[in-house]
Write a structure and sequence with these properties.
This protein has about 350 residues and is α/β, with parallel strands linked by helices. It is built from 11 helices and 12 strands. The longest helix is centred in the N-terminal third of the chain and has 18 residues, at about 20-35.
Length: about 350
């Protein structure tokens, strides 16, 4: 008897710039994985043309009922947002943040690891077997959207603006528990909490206090508290001390870009915006942006999108397929099939084909 087919309904939102190239590449790889499963599962793709071109036509990054259109799907496969024709805060808030906050995707995970043949700026990175994961609080903090602008055009003191970082006890507790639970699944069994409570005496102090309270429930996990400035230095100087790094929305955004640069290129880093309660779809996207300087040339690095596809497979419980995709990415790098950002000459298409050929 043939195995039952499970179909995953996925929203495909390439959005802007190289997002179009890497999402198409990611879909090709996922289709190859579905074919290799012998019909055990498949993907039904729902295409959404939202993003900065959509904005030029409609004045919005996505329709008013955009979340309604996505809410019953199994996941969102996202590219990158941002284009020079739309102010960055408008494009980011109109699409990526609207989806993350609308679907309470409060945990954003961003793994950092070294790939074969990819040069890292860290001396001896491969021998040191570096591997850590940034957990980004993805629903509040500095991205809460509270603030305003007043006194436009005022003489003398000029305009005034405020931007508040909002930390709730519930928001802090859930992201810390997530980080500790994740650390329990990893060999390092350590959580490094990033803070700036020496300078920010309200929100970040609550952040620290909730961390200390949650840590008491995880006596088997080593902890440390590191100021964000010191953590940036640690990424560069002592990355082998890192395992799970939990940080606020803005701090983690900055540190995860640093982490992907440490692994060799921004184009390599994967991420998952998770709604761990599974009430809403989660969203899988590379860490990188839309890269207007290389968009449309067929040279974008698709590895960050492939890693995000692997995280999506894991989210669906397809751990074997996720692992085989990671192995295929490693083999492709071992074969020296690399895009320009990591020292090669291969195109997006070349890397995609090689990963498909290398699938177990
Ligand atoms: N694929 C990730 C992406 O599109 N990022 C665009 C961006 O500007 N992100 C900043 C942020 O999320 O804080």
């Amino acid at each position: 008897m043939a195995a039952a087919t499970k179909t995953f309904d996925i929203a495909s939102i390439p959005a802007d710039g190289v997002g179009h190239e890497v999402v198409a590449a990611g879909r090709e790889v996922l289709e190859a994985i579905a074919t290799n499963s012998g019909g055990q599962f498949g993907f039904e793709w729902r295409d959404f043309d939202w993003g900065s071109e959509y904005y030029a036509r409609t004045g919005r990054m996505m329709p008013e009922d955009g979340l309604e259109q996505l809410k019953d799907l199994d996941a969102i496969f996202f590219g990158a947002v941002g284009w020079p024709t739309v102010p960055d805060h408008v494009s980011l808030w109109g699409l990526r943040i609207a989806i993350c906050q609308g679907f309470d995707q409060w945990a954003n995970i961003r793994p950092v690891s070294m790939l074969p043949n990819v040069q890292s700026p860290i001396v001896g990175a491969h021998e040191r077997d570096l591997d850590w994961i940034v957990v980004r609080e993805n629903s509040e903090g500095e991205y809460s959207g509270f603030g305003g602008r007043n006194f436009s055009g005022r003489e003398g003191l000029g305009e005034v603006s405020t931007q508040s970082a909002v930390f709730t006890e519930v928001g802090c507790e859930r992201i810390f528990r997530f980080a500790f639970d994740l650390a329990r699944t990893r060999p390092g069994k350590k959580v490094s909490k990033v803070t700036k409570s020496n300078a920010q005496q309200y929100g970040m102090v609550l952040w620290d206090e909730v961390f200390d309270r949650v840590a008491q429930d995880y006596p088997d996990i080593e902890t440390e508290s590191v100021l964000v400035d010191a953590m940036a230095a640690k990424f560069v100087l002592r990355p082998e001390d890192l395992d799970v790094v939990v940080a606020s929305n803005l701090h983690a955004d900055i540190l995860s870009d640093l982490g992907s640069a440490m692994s060799g290129s921004l184009g390599l880093a994967a991420s998952a915006n998770l709604n761990p309660d599974r009430r809403f779809p989660s969203m899988f996207e590379p860490v990188h942006g839309s890269a207007p300087d290389i968009a449309g040339q067929g040279i974008a690095n698709p590895v960050g999108q492939f890693g995000s596809a692997a995280l999506m497979l894991e989210h669906f419980g397809l751990d074997v397929e996720a692992k085989s995709l990671q192995v295929a990415i490693d083999r492709t790098c071992e074969q020296g099939i690399l895009t320009r950002d990591v020292g090669g000459t291969a195109s997006t298409h070349d890397v995609t084909q090689a990963v498909i050929d290398n699938l177990g």
